[in-house]
Structure prediction request, 782 residues.
Amino acid sequence: MTTTSEPARPRISAPVAEHRTRFFDHRIPSLYAGRYRIDNQQTFKSVDDGADRTVDATPQPFDVVQPRFSIDPTAINAQFPVPDAIGTYSQTLAHINLDTPGLPWNRPLLPGHPEVPWMALLVFREGELPEDLDAVGLVKAGTVRELLNGAHGEGKPPSLTEQSLRPDEWGEQCATIYVPDAVFDAVKPLPDEMGYLAHLREGGRPDATLAGADPEPDEGELNAVLVANRFPAATGGRHVAHLVSLEGHDQYLTTPAPTEGVRLVSLTSWSFTTEPDTGIGFGDLAQHLATTDGTTARAADELRLRVPVQAPANPSAPQKEALERMAGGAVALPQRLESGERTVAFYRGPLTAQPAQQLPDPSAGPGGRLDSAGEALIYLREYGVFDTAYAAAFTAGRTLALADAEFRTALLGFRSAARSAVRRLASHPELAAHAATMLSARQLTAPLAFEAFDRLLGADAGPDAGRPTGTGARSGDGDSADIPSGDSSSATHTGGARLLQALGQAGPQLRAGRRRTGVRVRRTTGDVRAVLAEPGVAHLLTQAAPDDYAKVTGWLDGLRRLEMLGLSHLVPDGRALPPESIRFAYIDAAWVRAAVDGALSVGVGHALDADLNRLATGWGAVSKCAVVINSALVANWPNTIVTAYAGPEPVTAVRDVVFGTEIRLVLFPQVVDRFELAEPPRGLCFGIGDVGTIELREITGDQIGHPKGEFPPAPAHSDIFGRFARFLRPGGMDVLNVDGAGDALVPALSRAHDISAPDRISSAQFALQMINAPQAQTFSRP
Prediction:
């Protein structure tokens, strides 16, 4: 199947109503958390002299209470990476979701900057926190009073005024971490960056995406999200994420930290382990399948399932013949003829690089099918070689059938029962005439003596009871059975009465010397093929041994899906499917049909068996195309999503199977126009893709969230972060330069969206750009 490929890139699917997500910048409270006092005065005018007199009311203190030194674990909606997770996270920015939407902004950190949250999510690696060298989440626990008095240990505690604390807060328990000055200065977010690292997320009603609809946020679906500004180490290792309070340390966000380091309140924390990043992720592997150098799409011929061959400049006629067959997916293999001579023959399996030549259907011929592998050999007389594809298919089907005892038993059992039934119908044409309406499978398979006794006991023993009357009948395979002919008047008697009457008369008749014998009638088998052509007969015969018939047809349907065939049958030469490759192929229905004929050839004793085989071949259809992948994607991302389309409609796979650990075969019932490999979903997270880019997304209009290309659009870089390395702070700590000095990310993203300084994208728009959606790779058929 001819395909073209598009370079892999991180992307998000077009938003649909069922999966709507909206982002908002922040939630500024009308009244910050803290301690307040209401002072009021009342002014009275004197009735004597008219002078104003002021009366001061008693001050009314009140507190706006919000979490300050710890948060309830139940208030945490989600964390990514999840606690104690193990995976490759070196391209992911950790984040935390809080159920209280306004929590990050309910305290002012910097006067005049309400958008700056008072908390931040910091990620530390092994060896960076002296009190937690293994990065497992160790903290110092104690009261707030002990913290402010310096009793928690090293590091400058937060500078909080006594007046700002409620009396009950002094004894509140809190957890703290000691961060050395160099580490804090390296990882701390700048005030201008903190607003971009926090936003609100809402997943609400689907109707919010309708054109022109702009509903208010659904309060029940709002979460506050804080994103870390640091990537985990590409070399792997344990990491710990701390949601810290920066209240009382705000002065150190723009100036160097004190030499003794800082003591931060850890509101919550969790640890995770990232594995060493080889630099080869899902996007890298998928991109390699589709491109030669990351940008140049592979040629369509390179994506066909066939052995690559370098054709001579001016091929001769025999060479052209060989090249044409190899272009279709055939390979040249050594062959030994029955005469002992050795030669070369062409072979290919059911998967072809080009649509297979249409061959006559054997069922239309006199035999109705292939009877031997020799019939399926194609002899190229002009070149003196054979094409053994269909002969090998016949042999493969026969070998598989012989190796499966259950199938063999079912096949022979079905044919035996159907053979007896069709012979009975041939002996009694009047039965065949009623096959579609009156007969049951039991009437064709039960011994005739049993059937006659059943009729004798039945309610109606007349000549219309579904049997021939007044004559003997031949059972099974020719044994005769004498059936007494009764008086015509007995048709009015019940079967039970007839039996009693016969038993009552038997003794006197024997004593009188009268003996009664049945009439033996000579019958002919009749034209079996004519019987099989009668309406309803074929269906009735399939019910002669229904369990065996179901096993046979089910097994053959599996063969049509190529289930029993090994990889060597499908890909006879490994050069057609090298490591880290994807190949598209058509499926040759004639090859599969020959394999089915081979399976049904087992145990055929005469022509009737061959005719009965046709009853088992009219079921499952043969798939039309296949995709074969040989890649580490199969082993390392076993839940990779494959999606195929014929036009705009998705096509459901008939079969999806893995051979070994790295080869995946997917069959489709029709030739597909597009095929997509998508990274398994992992939830909404932030970061960059495997190829060192993010996906720009629309931020205005009615197409918000739709992809609009890769960013940055610079040539790929050899660094693991690829093109994105330019947006990291100097120092090798993998800290994101969100909006600091030099080449910062926010200004660059703003320019990419044609937003000129001093205007910038908002924090919600920044979050939309940083979504690390599952990556996908699409292959298209022209």
In short: The longest strand covers residues 262-274.
